[in-house]
């Protein structure tokens, strides 16, 4: 039986799982790629490489053995309500896809307990919970490097948007793309996030702006996330922008979002959240409230793009209606911060977008001082934040927004998970999903300090090595 070879020969798919070559054949050279993988009648598997090498593996190698990461120099559990829960010289034992035990310094599994256990060495490394990205746009076609040049020459995001560029140019490319092409692009985008340590992310639609097209994007997300190591929390973003064909009859488009997109996305199980872009040139506060009411009536949670360039009052509305998060906030006012502090809504800050758009940095310290829980996201998208590096967002938050390294780590793990309503990821606690990242770094502060460099050594999802 032939197996699917993925990622240009760096992984295979078996029983719905994606298994990287480095986990099967640690000695395989990075310059050589897997050409063929097949299951033989005697229950062994044959791997053939581009340089002619081959290897036979027993089928037991594809089972999910218990996992032990030992000799961990620094472990961030993020288990406490403050700080990062730093432990040193410890081990983590995982079984059945869950964290079973954090083994303290000086203790070790016995020889019999180690039998059949996959062992990874964390010596000289930092191990953290799998990163959680609470704001991404991973399903689209095309790219907007020309607009990047216009921005570099002085054009603003809103100027490009009003001239028919921006979101609309991505909408045109996305509408024209096949389902298969969108799947392939989405897979590549999620793999970029995975390479930086992300094991869970929120993913939005928003680049079709018509009912069938938006549902198609959510179907792409569902199809890819069923096979990709990253868990994707889907969000309907039909209210991203008013498409050009509805510019003179925006009420008709709003009715389509409220009466068609939202009920179908909810009833077909395609979305967990509904998002709106409440901003000048996008959707008004009154329109946002109508979309939110329809989403709540359909059983969807609420998220909001707000106060990115101008204060439209979206934050106060989101807090009042119990939104899970309000995102961007570069232009938030003190009154809106106060309203947010009285709610359970998370502030999701997106420094990559602020950097790209030359906008003021979100007032992170004011939000923290007011007691607002904050999360950090990449805002991965083709227009205003074409990056998959959540560690870079930590660096920007520390260097430009004034938050501590410890708070930055919480903002990409436990607080991001909470902003998505997830209760068993973002922390390394017995019983939680065994989603872990091993960073090749001497100290947890080194990762945002040495910015622009990918320090990820190994990504573990559900107790399985998925990237190394």
Architecture blueprint of SSEs:
Layout: E1 4-6, E2 11-14, E3 17-20, H1 21-24, E4 34-39, E5 44-49, E6 54-58, E7 67-76, E8 86-95, E9 98-103, E10 118-121, E11 126-129, E12 131-133, H2 145-152, H3 157-162, H4 167-176, H5 179-195, E13 198-204, H6 211-225, E14 231-239, H7 250-267, E15 273-278, H8 285-298, E16 301-306, H9 314-320, E17 325-328, H10 334-341, E18 346-349, H11 351-356, H12 364-369, E19 374-376, H13 390-400, H14 405-411, H15 414-419, E20 436-439, H16 446-449, E21 456-461, E22 464-467
Parallel strand pairs: 7-10, 7-11, 12-13, 13-14, 14-15, 15-16, 16-17, 17-18, 18-19
Antiparallel strand pairs: 1-2, 2-3, 4-5, 5-6, 7-8, 8-9, 11-20, 20-21, 21-22
Helix pairs in contact: 5-6, 6-7, 7-8, 9-10, 13-14
Description:
The protein is of the alpha/beta class and 468 residues long. The chain folds into three domains: 4-62, no CATH class; 67-129 and 427-467, Urease, subunit C, domain 1, CATH 2.30.40.10; 131-419, TIM Barrel (Alpha-Beta Barrel). Helix content is 31%, strand content 25%. The chain has helices spanning 21-24, 145-152, 157-162, 167-176, 179-195, 211-225, 250-267, 285-298, 314-320, 334-341, 351-356, 364-369, 390-400, 405-411, 414-419, 446-449; strands spanning 4-6, 11-14, 17-20, 34-39, 44-49, 54-58, 67-76, 86-95, 98-103, 118-121, 126-129, 131-133, 198-204, 231-239, 273-278, 301-306, 325-328, 346-349, 374-376, 436-439, 456-461, 464-467. The strands form four sheets. Strands 7, 8, 9, 10, 11, 20, 21 and 22 form an eight-stranded mixed beta sheet that branches. The chain has an eight-stranded parallel beta sheet with strand order 12-13-14-15-16-17-18-19. A three-stranded antiparallel beta sheet has the order 1-2-3. The radius of gyration is 23 Å and the shape is globular. The two termini are 26 Å apart.
